[in-house]
Sequence to fold (441 residues):
Amino acid sequence: MTVKQFFKSQAFKCIIVLLVIALISGGLLAILNDVLYVSEEERTMRAIEKVYGKEMKYEELEFSAEELKNDYGSISKVYLLENGNYLVQSTGGEGYKGGTITVWVVLTSADGEFSGIEKVVLESYEKQTLMSKLSYDVYSAHNDEITGDVYFTTSGDGIKVLISGATYSTNALNNSVDCALKFAREVLFVASADEEVA
Amino acid sequence: MTGKRFKTIAFDGLLKNNPTLRLVLGTCPTLALSTAAFNGIGMGLAVTFILICSNVLISLLRKTIPNAVRIPAFVIIIATFVTIVRMVLDKFIPSLYDSMGVYLPLIVVNCIILGRAESFASKNKVLDSACDGLFTGLGFTCALTLIGAIREILGAGAIFGYTLWDFKIEFFTSSAGAFFVYGLSIAIFNAVYSKIENVRRSKTFALRIMPKPDVSAPDNLDPDAGNEENANATAEATAKEVK
Fold:
């Protein structure tokens, strides 16, 4: 096939048509991506609205990668809200089929010390099928017992939280809340106290 | 487009070829997103919008796109509209965007959209294709909302998020419950549809074997007398055709 024949062939027409459609689609999406872009601030405000039902001023706190990980899971975002509470996004593992649950945990303080959990709100989950069974108010109901080195557990020592029929998912939820608890006890409020001393 | 053609397309999309309850297409989002009626409406409207837009564009380009690359071209067009819907939902209705999760981008491979593009839009005029997209999408939306409402009422004791009563059967919120309600909906819909279709057919059949009396004929003053023979002859002919 000569070059001239190629340019007149059906194959060349196919390439051009596909290329033109792809270019127009790409251009349109690039423009719309700029117009409909959702900033990180907007996403954070949505999360706060999801937790409190209203917008609130916040300050993002930064920690090292090591400080954001512990035995129970990992912390991805930490915010200090204008009402003095801390909003923490925490992910716990070991759920059904090894999946994870990510929640927003509101940690309260009294006189600069960690005083308990105000709220737990679901953000997202992976591989869990019985999420509708889980209850999130149960954690703040145990605030009197959250002292010393006590954590939530499905079995053994600690505050027992177990939703019958959804044992693995409860385990992942407990882990995500415990991850936020451990972070509060060992990193967040220690750092706050250090700042106050300085 | 004539009124009759419009009626045929509307009837096909909504009932005769309902994608969910008659053709059993788009099963994945139907089972996954029918936990609540609102999710069903959201998914249904998203699919309807994409169906209309992709059908119109594919119909416009049907003589330009070479036959050999029609499927990749359709997929690019559908994917573009799906991405636009994702961006719009993420910006303006984040709660619906979150609840639809991974099933929103998966609309790209939804067989209803590609099926209508291939079987209808690529062979018909723009207005016909737009109507087909609209009514197929509405048929899908109605089916999803119906299944979602049944599951929400029985599984959560609520409808569109409003609590009706405390009684709930959690089985209906699970995957097994989704299959159960979906199967039952298909069975009931098809039973009712067949019944109506049978009644309609028997009426048509009765009209065919009982033609109107020819009152203009001068030697046929008693309309029943002559027609009996005619009716018998037509019935025999129809019976032969049926055989």
About this structure: The mean pLDDT of chain B is 85. Chain B has two domains: 3-198, 210-242.
